[in-house]
Amino acid sequence: MKEAIDRICKELEELRASTQKEAEEARIRFLGKKGEITALMEQFRTVAPELKREYGQKLNELKKTALARIEELKSAAEEAAQDLAPKEDLTMPGDAFPLGSRHPVSIVRQQIVDIFRKFGYDVAEGPEIEDDYHVFEALNFPPNHPAREMQDTFFVSTGHVNPLLLRTHTSSVQVRTMETQPLPIRVVCPGRVFRNEAISARAHCIFHQVEGLYIDKNVTFADLKQAILLFAREMFGPETEIRMRPSYFPFTEPSAEVDVSCNICHGKGCNICKGTGWLEIMGCGMVDPNVLKASGIDPEVYSGFAFGMGVERIAMLKWQVNDLRHYFENDMRFLQEFATATEV
Questions:
Q1: Which of 139-148, 188-197, 212-221 shows the lowest per-residue confidence on average (mean pLDDT)?
Q2: Cβ–Cβ < 8 Å for 338, 101
Q3: Which one of 29, 122, 299, 321 is CB 3.0 to 4.6 Å from 289, fit for a cystine?
């Protein structure tokens, strides 16, 4: 027993523990139910009576030494863990991350939609990959018609009667609406469109449109003009004026281009409006009777008007942005300028 006590004393002197777990494992090894010191306590019963006093004292001292050494190791391990812990006060609030903002194109698109919703228009959407019929033929673009060259198209599949393509305008949504919804119809169709154009400050191969359609009995060009005037004043200010210039679109007759008075110089002429006092914003017209017939609507009973505008174009005029490419470059400095531009 004396040799066992001396051996354990030496082991306790050399004992090391770098973590609380290792210190606890040492306690179990020496002082647990099956520990080495516990086993010596059990053997003490067999010691001769004349030796019990001597070995009893040694066992008690050994147990006290073991307890003290293990507590010392636990304290050292706890201090080492605290030294490795972060020095910052983790209960304090962290630094605030800068919040993102909506994209200027999304802001303007939503503003346009909200304005027409106030006028009683619903919102209609459709697929970006469309067939030739809904993009061209149903809109009075006969096969091989020269008017198809007005829009350079990305085709997805060719070689069959009704090829698939990336829609060149959201007018295809208007066709699907006329085919499926009961009359009268009053909708705006926001969405992304695609045209095979060279990218420049004034043009892009991807852009966004909002088109509108109103079909009912006795709809006139005067109704169209009034709707556009109300929209322009909601978007650009109550003093805004509009003018309509004759134009051509295969799906409307008569057709017009719409200009608004420059909200920078108020019609006096500046570099934004190129000295004219006017800024072009959209095309419009009365729905061609052939378009109504293609969707199963009787042009002798119903009439309607349609209009379409580029969202990027409206955003450029509203915020005087001189390069369309800014909207697609994801420059955080540019986008941050619109962090608070959420009101109409």
A1: 139-148
A2: yes
A3: 299
